[in-house]
Amino acid sequence: MSDMSASVTWLNNEAINFETVSGSGHKVIIDSAQELGARPMELILMGLGGCASYDVVSILKKSRQAINDVRCEVSARRADSVPAVFTDIHLHFIVAGENIKESQVAKAIELSADKYCSASKMLADGGVNITHDFEIVATA
Q1: Residue 140 has what pLDDT?
Q2: Which of 18, 64, 72, 140 is most buried (CB neighbours < 10 A)?
Q3: Domains in the chain: how many in total?
Q4: Helices 102-111 and 40-62: angle between axes, nearest 10 degrees
Q5: Domain identity same for 25 and 66
Q6: Is the pLDDT of residue 72 over 80?
Q7: Which runs of E-coded beta strand occur in the chain?
Q8: Is 48 helix (H, G, I), strand (E, B) or coil?
């Protein structure tokens, strides 16, 4: 088992914003008003997109695809009632490179979703409907 940690510190009495520090020392500002930082639920989407993108890039590189850019656009729908949990999340991958095989991109996304991405697995197991699609942009 692998342990992780983080700390969250309220920044001031005038607003509801926090400085978070990961166990590895990286800082992120969380702000419900979005003036200083991202909202907490946005960070979940960012983490999911980052986790899935890491997998997709790693798998495509191992399969020797000549990628030069990968972007993941994440969109979500939340429940109307409190707690306003995510009900649906969609990840749209845009993969750019030379002679990229569609089958390799589809396989990389499937492996990420079903096997490697801890964030995706955790959210899906919690009842979130997660979907994926992709497009390939040819570059010279």
Answers
A1: 74
A2: 72
A3: 2
A4: 130
A5: no
A6: yes
A7: 6-10, 17-22, 27-31, 66-78, 86-98, 129-138
A8: helix
What is the mean predicted confidence (pLDDT) over 2-13? Answer: 92
* Paired tokens of 83: 């707690």
The C-alpha angle with vertex 31 and arms to 28 and 35, in degrees rounded to 5, equals 105
| Pair (28, 47) in one structural domain | no
Side-chain half-sphere exposure of 78, counting CA atoms within 13 A: 10
- ∠5-90-126 over CA atoms, to 5°? 50
- pLDDT given at position 14: 79
- Does one domain contain both 79 and 21? no
The pTM of the whole model exceeds 0.90: yes
Say if residue 27 is in the same domain as residue 49.
Answer: no
Higher pLDDT, 34 or 111: 111
- Please provide residue 117's backbone torsions phi and psi, each rounded to the nearest 5 degrees: -80, 105
